[in-house]
Amino acid sequence: MASIRYRRGGFAGVFVAVLCASALLTALGVLFESGLRAGVEPQRYAGATVVVAARQALPVAGDLDVPLAERVPLPADAVARVAAVPGVDRAVGEVSAPVVLPGEPAARAYGWGSAALAPLEVREGVAPARPRDAVLDAALADRLGVRVGDRLPVALGGEPREYTVTGVAAGPGDTGRQAALYVTDEEARALSGRPDQVDVIGVLAGGGVDGLAARIGAALPDLDVEVHTGDRRADAEFLDVGRVRAELVVLSLSFAGTTLMISVLVVAGTLGLSVQQRRRELALLRAIVATPRQVHRLVGAEVLLVAGTAAVLGALPGIGVAHLMRDAFASAGMLPPDFGLVTGPVPPVAAVLLVLVTARVAAWVAVRRAASAPPVEALRDAAVEPPRLGAVRAVSGWVFAALGAGAALVPLFLPGEQALAGAGASVICLVVAAGLLGPRLVTGATRLVAGPLRRLSPVGGHLAVEGVLSNARRLAAVVTPMVLAVAMASVQLFTQTTVRAAAEEQASGGVVADVVVTGPAGLAPGVTEAIRRVPGVEAVTPVVRGQAFVRHLALGEEQVSAYAVQGLVADGLDRTLDLRTTAGDLARLTGDAVALSEQAAGALGLGVGDRVDLVLGDGAAARPEVVAIYGRGLGFGDVALPRDVLAAHTPTGFDHSVLVRTDGSGALAAAVAERFPGVVVQDRAALDAAGQEQRDTQSWISLIALLVVLGYLAISVVNTLVMATAERSREFALLRLVGTRRRQVVRMTRVEALLVVGIAIVVGTAAALPALVGVSIGLTGSPVPSAPPLLYLAITGTVAVLGLAAIGVPTRVALRARPVDAIGARD
After folding, report:
1. Which one, of 16, 20, 726, 14, lies nearest residue 362 by Cα?
2. What are phi and psi of 579, to 5 degrees?
3. Cα pseudo-dihedral 173, 179, 183, 185, rounded to 10
4. How far is it, in rounded angstroms, from Cα 46 to Cα 260?
5. Rounded to the nearest 5 degrees, what angle is found at the Cα of 14, between the Cα atoms of 9 and 17?
6. Considering the entire predicted model, what is its pTM?
7. 42 three-class SS
8. Could you tell me which residue ranges the ABC3 transporter permease C-terminal domain spans (predicted)?
9. Residue 194, Cα to own-chain centre: how many angstroms?
10. SS3 annotation, 340-408
């Protein structure tokens, strides 16, 4: 306790580092727990006792299940089997289809029978009885400004229809998350295009839920179903809830691992700096016969007290950080706006324990040399900083450097997901190496620029060079968090820019059609056929988008990889789309066939003639033969299937877009606009790269999480710099007493700051470069990553401003005291 009171400044830095680490780990823990247990309340199924749905995930042995992209349907005859279960009053099979309503971003048409699951009742008018009758919920009717008897224009896959509003319905709960149009059950089945299937089965019953759920599950032994009760009914209602929970778990685990490694480096560096500033005190304790064990116990008790207090106090703001991240993720489109968080006791307790263990181990490592050295050697080291690194530290540094360089080569041998994993491991290993070898890096860089600095500023430059050379260990602890900030930001941001630039280039070069036709909710086959009949149209290629999963072995373990899929028609494909075929023939893309990108084929170890085990977006399994390998996978998806094969496993079977080759007459746009309102004819540059919207969302999500981590790093940078500079008040006083002017001292610290910032930027860039080159080669084949200069300047400029400010402000504060008073301050 006396030591903590005596050295409040040094322990304040440790306190800040641990508090921020605890807050960030708590926030990520809350997100992880929410990914396992949180969700939203059911709306359209609020009145259902039980909701039966097909399993919407692909099981993976020893890992989290992978959520499927499309809704897995159930056979229509399962409704009768559920209705026959004892205790079931009524079973309702729900079917739906996406439609376009005026001014509504997304809407679906449902059968009126499923309105009982909400429950909805007609408050005005009557229920739908004829094929073109419709009932709207009250909120939707108000937004559209329609009343009973009005005619409502509706588009299905671009094809226009018109319904008569026969009623307005309302219920006890909120049904406004998605606009709903209710038609007759027969019309809903016709619109869905799947009359023999249902989306879910809603059960109305008055008995106990638990026993009923078990009986329903037992009645469907041949189907892989999930029986949802309580708030889990929303998982069947909103497929995005199940997907985002899985994404939230993966994201929080990924960034929690990165954050834990960063916090280890930051807390260890801060503690090392704190212990280094106490060299004379610890050496004196050894000189008066304090045993190494007693020194370890002293520092360990101090750290546990300070770090324990900071960790506990950091947990509460961590919950607030989790809610801020949730709001940011919702704004980016990852989470539904009504997705709640679970704030249990486990995340803060786990964060506190992790940070305490990290701090205690770091304290043991930091004080090891001072505690184990003989008393005479400890006193000598306290007076003059040891010029050489220890053998263990030097060897460890070179080992981590070799591991980092090796990890950067992973994309050359394991393309795809392994490329990104290798990049992350590479930058962490190289930053650890920079931290261990930091004194040598600082000394070597300073000697390299010593001559120009002395000529540029004879007094300030000379003092700065000599000060850095004599305090390389102290400055190495300051450089490490800045290196980490530059390297982390560069790898994360420039990986995304590299992938995006390559995808856009491939998409732009691959579309050889003249125009692209798109619709807000897809294009029905009738629209595509009408385009074929327009005069001047020479070739038409409908494109269906989807997702597929492939089970394969990676490093000896089973892994499931998700790939963007496009469904294409081989006839006339060469006149509208150039995928840059490198093996096989895309003309064979019919029936039981598939084409793979070079990245997917390399990751899966497949070639032309092999068969690939696919799981399509709705859970259906397929084993097509590889008939072609192509090079433009980032732009158009890594898997290409025949259009009819993929369309049969999408919710609507509609085309995502239609590529059209024309004679240049311009008749297509006028013909489409006249017959299909809402359908858009654009030039080929308007076609987005496959999955680009999803990549943009993922980029924003990664950027949000990265900004939180970088915020922690920024605080750490400022914290360590302020600690290092504030402890130099006696050094500044001595310089002024021997005749150095105040202005020269300020200039000296400015030169030191520039030197430290420059070293951090160069080393951080060097640490990021191998990873970025490896990722670029693995994903694009080019060793040159896409790194926008302005973005790089923003990264390095931010680090430079933080570094200069964190050194300049404490220097000016320290120089306010009179030299005679400062030289006599306690040490």
Report:
1. 14
2. -85, 0
3. -70
4. 41
5. 125
6. 0.78
7. coil
8. 254-375, 704-817
9. 35
10. CCCCCCHHHHHHHHHHHHHHHHHHHHHHHHHHHCCHHHHHHHHHCCCCCCCHHHHHHHHHHHHHHHHHH
At 691 the pLDDT is 47
> pLDDT tens digit string along 222-265?
888 889 888 888 888 888 777 778 778 877 887 777 777 777 77
pLDDT for the residue 77: 92
Residue 425, strand partner residues: none
CA 309 to chain centroid: 31
Could you check whether the bond before residue 819 is cis, i.e. omega within 30 degrees of 0?
Answer: no
The upper half-sphere exposure of residue 815, i.e. CA atoms within 13 Å in the direction of its Cβ, equals 19
**Structural contact between residues 760 and 802, judged by C-beta atoms closer than 8 angstroms:** no
Q: Identify whether the C-beta of residue 437 lies closer than 8 Å to the C-beta of residue 397.
A: yes
d(CA 455, CA 41): 70
E strand or H helix that includes residue 518: strand 515-523
442 closest CA partner among 224, 758, 746, 745: 758
Q: Is 50 exceeded by the pLDDT of residue 690?
A: no
| Dihedral-angle region of residue 676 (phi above 0 means left; psi in -120 to 50 means alpha; beta otherwise) | beta
Q: How far apart are CA 90 and CA 245, in angstroms?
A: 31
Q: Are 13 and 274 contacting, i.e. CB atoms less than 8 angstroms apart? A: yes
Beta carbons of 171 and 140 less than 8 angstroms apart:
no
Q: Which residue has the tokens 């605890």?
A: 22
pLDDT band at 9 (very low <50, low <70, confident <90, very high): low
Percentages of the chain per state (helix, strand, coil), in multiples of 5: 55, 20, 25
Look-up of token digits 């450089």: 479
Local structure of 91: helix, strand or coil:
strand
Mean pLDDT, the chain, rounded, equals 82
